[in-house]
Give the backbone structure.
Amino acid sequence: MNNPRRILIVDDSLAMRGALVKTLRNDHLIIEQAENGLEGFEKVRQLHFDLIITDVDMPGMDGFTFCKVLREKELLNTIPVIILSSHDKESDIERGFQVGASAYLSKTDAKAHLPALVERLLKHSSLIQDRLIMVVDDSPVILDIITKGLIKEGFQVFPSPSGRAALDALERMQPDLIISDLDMPEMDGISFCQTVHKRPPLTTVPFITMGTESDRGKMRQVLQSGASTYILKPFNIDQLVITVEKLLSDHFLLLLKDRERLETEQRLMLASIASLVEALEARDPYTRGHSEAVSNMVTRIAEKLGVPEKQVRDISIAARLHDLGKIGVRDDILLKPGALTDEEFAIIREHPVIGAKILDPIPSLKKMIPLVLSHHERYDGKGYPEGLKGDQIPFWARMTAVTDTYHALTSDRPYRKGMPQSRAIQIITDAKGSQLCPKCVDLFLQWIDDL
Ligand SMILES: [Fe+2]
């Protein structure tokens, strides 16, 4: 749960309210209190609540009446209510469910079971909240019954009288689930389902088909067309709601698993990068931390420019890897304290290409290649490896060139001490338009200035 959820506790006993708050307290919950049904109802009208826990015996308005009143009000009738009672007589439990409570719990069990029950109900309501269901049926009566039934449960619903009209609407919206009749004029449910699943953002949207034919061949054909399930008409709305909830929760779990898998891959990838860069920097104490420092500066600048988070992460990784190809440069050249011969310099100049070759077979790192390959290109076209000029050089490679130069100038090297910041800034400013991209230099200087 990311956003805090708001819960209302309605009980006339201050001590009981205190005990419940203590039992439930955690960072994801905002807990409000009311003394009885009347006060509770006032609060619910003023604030949005995700869940209500109410006592039964209270002066003013008792818990059953409070629950019943809520169920009669539009917008409030989908808030889950837990009835908490000191009696656990069968008749009371029955009455609780009759007035529309989501759960009934005895006060003696509250400490042990309430937190898990609250979590379960909140999870369930977040599954439904803001979920958009598209319903397609050529019968206005059925369309209306299903639409009203789903709205009553808290879903958002977009009804459509035909597959064609639905396809038009799908250009502008992305429902979380689609329910469609099979037997419709113009476009039947099977072709509608197949067409929907061919559209990229909708390829995995859960799809429920409804029909009157109960033969196995037809059902098989429907499921082969990509539908998640088939329900036989006539059905009652509760059956449909349960099917919708089940599909949404399965789909949600699938998305969650997918996200976890991506996160694990990302973590493993970052760990491999860290060891690659460490292996590189372990050979040369003077460049230790260089890649990280260059990457940090580029990352901060990207963030300051408002680049989307995901892209910032890629830029950050690519900048961290910019000198990766130096792994392929011999020690006697890489670590040579004095000036390099032309031949040695030619070998050093191969490092962007070597870096790109290392990354090429790794699918998740392929997109880092442009920055790695082009970080030694010069704005005036006199750089390497390709002699690209101006805007031909990828923007973040140009930016990395600026921070790379700045960090190299200000750090100690075997043959010289690092120079003061003011001198480095002067050199970088002088290189505007020749070695370095003027726009990137300006952005870099602005960033340094704001520090
Ligand atoms: Fe480099």
Strands lie at 5-10, 29-34, 51-55, 81-85, 103-106, 132-136, 156-160, 177-181, 207-211, 229-232.
